[in-house]
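> example.struct
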């Protein structure tokens, strides 16, 4: 079959963005202080924030901002975080503010009704801490709860039922991070979100679209807040007020986490879940029992850098590390950025890593995940040796899948059928979730992926409270038997990939993305493109990526050359018919002179840098408080 990849492009082409911004691949030249322009008008929602002020530098890619950097999918969230940095707050303070603001202006993707993974690099102690706020199943949950007459329930129906909703962790993460690593009072960090919720904010195109598309799953509370008196979704440019949520935030500002986990909000959450069809659902005791864990990061060297990120129960950074190391063993960098061989090796390395992901990964509190074995060089060399340029590992066209390997330390309970059931109920990727990074002048860095699972989560808003509840528990396997089966108080396996890359012991680059299970691929390829192929940060985000897993035809972004599809298909690699946008990657690079932030334009993302001279209480020439010198990432070619 022949396809014309360049014309099969109905959706927004991110390369066009580069062209519009006056830059093209390979020619994006950034001086010591420069920005790629973007529409920053909505930052006007924040009283008095001005991208033109000498304190800030705003753009799709921003450099030379040694006072700090925020890169997120929403300009208001980035601006509010940057303002915290400019006032002398640190990266953790800024991250807390960014999350609260995202909850108001981007309620479809994340919030206190959901969970996430916040990876914190603490410059003082030179250590990484992973604040794990993944939602937990209720204590009455059981492995069959997603079956209907013995069959996996249909996904769209499952997400609206009470058993889909996990105990939310985000607020506990924000409070834990603030208390442990922050420097500003809770009230200050919540204030911008309260103002936006109470005073109103501009609805952007994405929110308008997401409200309209998800009306069918909304409960009455969500309809009341998101729709007008005639039941219509707001149009882009309209102002939306969420007074209920402003009040919720005010009580959190006043009383802290307890009002949510043990007080009146807990009661309202439990009532909302109880009123839904299905069960078992979370109740007040489950909420009272919730607490985040602070996990040691997973670490793996590949090329001349080290991938560091949140370990299981997200599969993300571990799988990214496996793929990257295999690609290094396969010598992917010998092939050009858009060479068919490059895509073929990536597609195959993804399939091989995913076979192990599905076979072995789950919540480590319940499953003995052989992480060390999966990341063992001999094991990865052996896994990579199954991949070659002239064929595919299994006969995918005939329905075969790559078989999982047996890494050192694989649990005795080795059950090949686990992997075979993992796909039941797996949805098409929806691109929910938000990822952002904050970095400060002390050298602290936060890489945070936060989610309520599907866009608008379960569609259920807590009445009178103004926030959406997640449907995260549908990330469990619907069929029992595998490492990711439902169990009481367990956390479902995730694909989110908050990552910080280190070189010579220094953080040099962060990346993360929404996009369900395509997140792993998007983030892995952004790292590959920046640190191995040497693209500029924004280019590394815009460079078209592909996605494959054990059981998927290769998904591909517009501008992947037709030759790559033909090459793959001639060797038995099935590719999807049409291209589509994958992911929404935000990256921050930490260099000798400051930060470069890049935000994916696919969702109006904005990077906001803070000039060091303008940070309150700092003299212009003060050196970073981190004693270590920063080396700038360089590509291999
Ligand atoms: N729930 C998904 C996960 O944790 C993320 C949802 C999405 O990005 O679409 O892997």
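> example.seq
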């Amino acid at each position: 079959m022949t396809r014309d990849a360049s014309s099969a492009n109905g959706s927004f082409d991110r390369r066009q963005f580069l062209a519009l911004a006056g830059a093209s691949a390979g020619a994006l030249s950034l001086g010591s202080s420069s920005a790629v322009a973007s529409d920053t008008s909505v930052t006007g929602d924040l009283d008095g924030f001005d991208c033109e002020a000498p304190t800030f530098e705003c753009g799709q890619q921003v450099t030379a901002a040694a006072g700090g950097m925020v890169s997120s999918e929403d300009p208001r969230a980035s601006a509010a975080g940057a303002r915290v940095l400019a006032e002398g707050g640190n990266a953790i303070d800024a991250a807390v503010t960014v999350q609260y603001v995202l909850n108001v202006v981007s309620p479809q993707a994340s919030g206190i009704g959901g969970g996430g993974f916040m990876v914190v690099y603490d410059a003082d102690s030179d250590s990484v801490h992973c604040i794990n706020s993944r939602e937990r199943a209720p204590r009455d949950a059981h492995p069959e709860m997603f079956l209907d007459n013995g069959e996996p329930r249909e996904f769209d129906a499952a997400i609206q039922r009470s058993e889909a909703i996990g105990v939310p962790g985000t607020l506990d993460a924000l409070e834990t991070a603030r208390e442990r690593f922050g420097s500003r009072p809770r009230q200050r960090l919540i204030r911008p979100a309260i103002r936006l919720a109470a005073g109103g904010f501009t609805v952007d195109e994405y929110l308008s679209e997401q409200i309209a598309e998800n009306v069918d799953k909304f409960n009455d509370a969500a309809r009341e807040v998101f729709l007008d008196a005639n039941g219509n979704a707001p149009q882009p440019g309209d102002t939306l007020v969420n007074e209920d949520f402003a009040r919720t935030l005010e009580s959190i500002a006043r009383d802290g986490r307890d009002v949510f986990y043990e007080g009146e909000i807990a009661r309202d959450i439990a009532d909302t879940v109880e009123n839904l069809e299905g069960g078992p659902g979370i109740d007040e005791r489950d909420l009272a029992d919730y607490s985040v864990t602070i996990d040691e990061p997973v670490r793996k060297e590949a090329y001349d850098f080290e991938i560091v990120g949140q370990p299981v129960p997200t599969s993300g950074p571990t799988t990214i590390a496996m793929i990257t190391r295999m690609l290094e063993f396969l010598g992917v960098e010998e092939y050009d950025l858009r060479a068919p061989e490059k895509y073929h090796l990536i597609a195959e390395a993804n399939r091989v890593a995913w076979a192990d992901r599905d076979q072995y990964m789950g919540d480590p509190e319940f499953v003995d995940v052989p992480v060390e074995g999966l990341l063992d060089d001999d094991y990865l060399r052996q896994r990579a040796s199954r991949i070659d340029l002239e064929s595919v590992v299994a006969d995918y066209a005939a329905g075969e899948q790559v078989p999982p390997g047996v890494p050192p330390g694989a649990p005795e309970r080795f059950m090949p059928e686990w992997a075979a059931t993992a796909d039941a109920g797996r949805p098409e990727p929806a691109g929910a979730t938000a990822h952002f990074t904050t970095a400060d002048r002390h050298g602290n860095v936060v890489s945070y992926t936060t989610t309520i699972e599907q866009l608008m989560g379960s569609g259920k808003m807590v009445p009178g409270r103004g926030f959406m509840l997640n449907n995260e528990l549908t990330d469990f396997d619907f069929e029992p038997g595998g490492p990711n089966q439902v169990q009481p108080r367990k956390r479902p396996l995730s694909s989110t990939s908050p990552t910080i890359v280190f070189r010579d012991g220094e953080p040099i680059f962060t990346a993360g993305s929404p996009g369900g299970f395509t997140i792993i691929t998007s983030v892995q390829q952004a790292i590959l493109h920046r640190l191995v192929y040497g693209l500029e940060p924004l280019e590394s985000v815009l460079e078209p990526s592909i996605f494959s897993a054990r059981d998927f035809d290769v998904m591909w972004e517009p501008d992947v050359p037709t030759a790559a599809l033909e090459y793959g298909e001639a060797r038995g690699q099935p590719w999807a018919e049409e291209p589509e946008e994958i992911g929404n990657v935000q990256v921050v690079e930490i260099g000798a002179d400051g930060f470069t932030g890049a935000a994916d334009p696919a969702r109006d993302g904005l990077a906001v840098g803070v000039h060091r001279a303008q940070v309150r209480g700092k003299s212009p020439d003060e050196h970073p408080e981190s004693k270590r010198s920063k080396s700038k990432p360089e590509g291999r070619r």
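> remarks
The radius of gyration is 23 Å.
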